[in-house]
Amino acid sequence: MFKIPALVNFVVFVLNAIYKIVGNYGIAIIIVTVLMRIIIFPLTLKQEKSMKKMREIQPEMDKLKEKYKDNPQEFQKKTAELYREAGVNPLGGCLPLLIQLPIFVALYYAFMGEAIPNDAKFLWFTLKQPDKLFMIGTFAFNLLPILNVVITFVQQKMMATPGQDNQQMQTMMYMMPIMMLFIFYRMPSGVTLYYLVSGALALLQQYIILKGRSDDGENNTKVTK
């Protein structure tokens, strides 16, 4: 991972400043995560609107797929036109993740280095090591990466467009959580905690927004009746 020393120093400074107030690095990580989610909220809200539009144009996408099933180039061209007309950016969902990535990398180097004390703890685990809930022989059962897998899978499920039969998307729905498990399983738990809290907050936000829109739709239907 590409290291930006100035950003690492800034993250360490913020963590230490919050630590001096709350007295625990784990709580400091959670506060940093909440602040980060607040900062990127406008982007995630825009992402959610884009997801809604993707659902709305899915029937048109299915028609194009059937009409140009023997002409992939024309299908790609017509799909791009449909996205442009609907104001949809299929890559828009990547932007919040890309913005958070430098912070994630900076946290990784902060916990791999000497800036954070080796004995910094939160709940049952030491933040500079995997969380190790318990041991099965020589195998360490790390809970936080497994929780990350669950949250990532649920997010993928919620983001899937209804009626979508794209095999590549279905594969990603299962492969992404497995990749997360391998990436995080031996990572410092302080970094995993950040990703877990961020994912949980994103999932909660997504659920509230989707539920709110669903309720609005039901209310409108009742009024129409």
Describe the protein in words:
This protein has 225 residues and is mostly helical. The protein has one domain. It is built from 9 helices and 4 strands. The chain has helices at residues 5-22, 25-39, 41-56, 58-67, 72-86, 94-112, 143-159, 167-184, 189-224; strands spanning 121-122, 125-126, 134-136, 139-141. α1 packs across α6 (94-112). It is elongated and about 60 Å long. GO terms for molecular function: membrane insertase activity. The chain crosses the membrane at residues 25-45, 91-112, 132-151, 193-210.
Give the SSE map:
Elements: H1 5-22, H2 25-39, H3 41-56, H4 58-67, H5 72-86, H6 94-112, E1 121-122, E2 125-126, E3 134-136, E4 139-141, H7 143-159, H8 167-184, H9 189-224
Antiparallel strand pairs: 1-2, 3-4
Helix pairs in contact: 1-2, 1-6, 2-9, 4-5, 6-9, 7-8, 7-9
Transmembrane segments: 25-45, 91-112, 132-151, 193-210
InterPro entries: YidC/ALB3/OXA1/COX18, YidC/Oxa/ALB_C, YidC_ALB_C
Organism: Leptotrichia rugosa
Features of the shown structure:
single chain, 225 residues, 73% helix, mainly alpha, two-stranded antiparallel ribbon, two-stranded antiparallel sheet
Rg of Cα set:
21 Å
Strand arrangement, major sheet: 1-2
What fraction, in percent, of the residue positions are helical?
A: over 70%
Major β-sheet, in short?
2 strands, antiparallel
Give the CA-based shape: elongated
SSE order, as H and E?
Answer: HHHHHHEEEEHHH
What's the tally of helices?
Answer: 9
Domain Membrane insertase YidC/Oxa/ALB C-terminal: 25-210
Subcellular location: Cell membrane; Membrane
Family: Belongs to the OXA1/ALB3/YidC family.
Pfam families: 60KD_IMP
